[in-house]
Amino acid sequence: MPIAGSTAIAAFEGDLVFILFIFALMIITVFLGGWSSRNRYSQLGGARAMLQMISFEIPLALALSGPAIAAKSLSISVISMWQGTSTWLILLQPIGFVVLVICLMAELETAPFNIPESESEVVAGWRTEFSGRKFALIRLGKNLELVLASALIAALYLGGIQDLYFIPAIVVFLIKTIAVVLLISFLRAIFARLRLDQSIAGMWKYLLPLAILQIILIELGIGIA
Predict the structure, then answer these.
(1) Which of 77, 195, 196, 200 could form a cystine bridge with 11, CB 3.0-4.6 A?
(2) Are 1 and 151 in contact (CB under 8 A)?
(3) How much is the pTM?
(4) Sign (positive/negative) of CA torsion 213, 214, 217, 219?
(5) pLDDT exceeds cutoff 60 at 223
């Protein structure tokens, strides 16, 4: 993430695809974690998590494609810098922003998408058999994933790294990231948990068509300044 300057410490053309790969890798590790526990609740939670996270990968990839198409680059740093000479992409591509936030909430398994570990049905889902240091590392990993997702949204849709009057650019970026964390926390608090069929159906009926619509609008020149 370009936190302290216009270019991240490890930036290259295609790092946006690498970030998408990291989120996809989480699907495999979550499923294997639940399946290897040899507990019916863990296996059920792992299967739910895999089904949910794979389903939301499609609109997630499309939502990440919008800024890449606008900036004509697959580099997060380039997209962030491009917004400095244009307009924040949340104003140009609001549909993509909404789709990205929802998809990342599903990837993070936060309410209303905490279906894999619904305590009233499958105890704690794929985490049922984990405790102690292993459970602490899982919680730490999820918290780091939340920060990564929030920083990604800030870089792609909220103008990225920019100076604001007398405020240093790094402080501005951290404020944007914290604002996204608070937004996700607020949405998590006001919605009740969905059923798995409602989650998957909502993705196919609403999120995927909206993500495709955003791409079409970009290709037509609408949503690019």
Answers:
(1) 77
(2) yes
(3) 0.87
(4) negative
(5) no
